[in-house]
Amino acid sequence: MKVLKSKRNENTVSLELEASALELAAHMPDAFKKVSKNAQLPGFRKGKVPQKLFEKRFGTGVIVEEAINRVMNQVYKQAIDELSLKVIDSPTDVDLDEYVADKPLVFRCNVLVEPEITLKKYKGLAVSVEHKLVTDDMVTEDVNRLLGAQATYETVDRAAKEDDIVRFNATVMVDGEPFALWTRDNQAIRVGSGSYGPDVDAHFMGLKKGDQKTFSVTYAENAHSVELQGKTAEFSISVDDVRGKRLPELTDELAKTLDEGCQSVDDFKARIRQKLTTRTDEANEQAKQKAIEEAVMVANPLDIPQPMIDRRAMGLVAQFEREMHQRQFSLQQYMAITQKTIADIQKDFEPQAKEQVHLQKIFEAIATKEKIVVTDDAIIAEANTLSKRTFETREAVESEYGDAFADIESFVRNKNVMAFLAKSAKIKVV
């Protein structure tokens, strides 16, 4: 095998390759076996025709053609390895010189490869980050959220507002006919829940007991209720009752019930503040990392070939499907509700996929330039965090995770690179 020419233009490499006559000849026996597999001649079983009789009856062309395909594939792979090309798609524009017996075989092709990145600025990145703090209002809101499980609803003499329960009688017409599910007395809506569709709740805001109202709502083509998709529903309602949420008084005893680790109201609130502080600190750290990621991508632009984006987007679709499965929901159900195809969903993930590929290439380049290594101990620690098992060696992790081992290694490397970037970044807290 010879690489006669290798020329790169952005993300495309043009190759001119040569296979020797001996390399081609080495593929002839297997080529004959394949093309003669279904051949039949009188006196011979299928696939058992001798080569000389086969060539006399069918010619040598089909054998040579198969051998050429085989040697081209072999030479192409050898060239990719020799040139250390990171190929991301099948070769295109394949051009084969005319075959001459006992002469070298020459062909050309173009191949799409991963982009090369020349790092520009990545140290001392200037970023602005909002640093959030836990407030008393946040603690009160969380306390009230937990008390909500113990709440009762009581009749109120005022206009309905969000989170109130309104009991009402209704006639709902669709296409001139009563919509049976909602045409009845003594039904209820919790204002803001969207149980009758996202546009209905607003019409209940401000209503009082005894009020009557007519209104219409046009439902989207992908509405949850198939009977209402693209239809307009005419509502005629009368309000029987408005009930507001009443939270119970937070006492020491109730605090113990809500959180067994608490002994008093003050203890309960302190534990909530601590949990909020932990979540807020994590959110602040994520915001800082996101700001650094955005800054390093702006400072190091990259032309990413579409196949790399498509491949990553397909991975995100698969991840999305796994997450829905964990929630007892299927991708097919999601597609039915949203009226989207797999191609549509993949398109939705493209911006995220493009960003992830861009960032990964930058991080790989930084890790190489700064000699940021991934230690076996770090890989083992990460695997132990992900798994219920306890691993002792890198080899044990590789054996357990197989192809996914590379993802663990990449994740740890990215953490190390992010720590390196954060350490040098000029962070302005706003």
Descriptive overview:
- It contains 14 helices and 12 strands.
- The longest helix is centred in the middle third of the chain and has 35 residues, at 265-299.
- Helices cover 46% and strands 19% of the residues.
- Helix 5 packs across helix 8, helix 7 (252-258) crosses helix 8 (265-299) and helix 11 (342-369) packs across helix 14.
- The strands form 3 sheets. Strands 6, 7, 8, 9, 10 and 11 form a 6-stranded antiparallel β-sheet that branches. Strands 1-2-4-3 form a 4-stranded antiparallel β-sheet. It has a two-stranded parallel sheet with strand order 5-12.
- The protein is extended.
- The protein has 3 domains: 2-112, Alpha-Beta Plaits, CATH 3.30.70.1050; 152-246, Chitinase A, domain 3; 294-429, Trigger factor, domain 2 (Orthogonal Bundle).
- It is α+β, with helices and mostly antiparallel strands and 430 residues long.
Q: If classified by CATH, what would the architecture of the largest domain be?
A: Orthogonal Bundle
Largest sheet: 6 strands, antiparallel
Question: Span from first to last CA?
Answer: 61 Å
The average pLDDT is: 93
CATH class of the largest domain: Mainly Alpha
Helicity, as a percent range: 40-55%
Integer count of domains = 3
Radius of gyration: 34 Å
What is the overall silhouette?
extended
Poorly predicted tracts of residues? none
Strand content: 15-25%
Category from helices, strands and their pairing: alpha+beta
User: Under CATH, the topology of the largest domain is which?
Assistant: Trigger factor, domain 2
Topology pattern, helix = H, strand = E: EEHHHHEEEHEEEEHEEHHHHHHHHE
Let me know the number of strands: 12
Total count of helical runs of at least 4 residues = 14
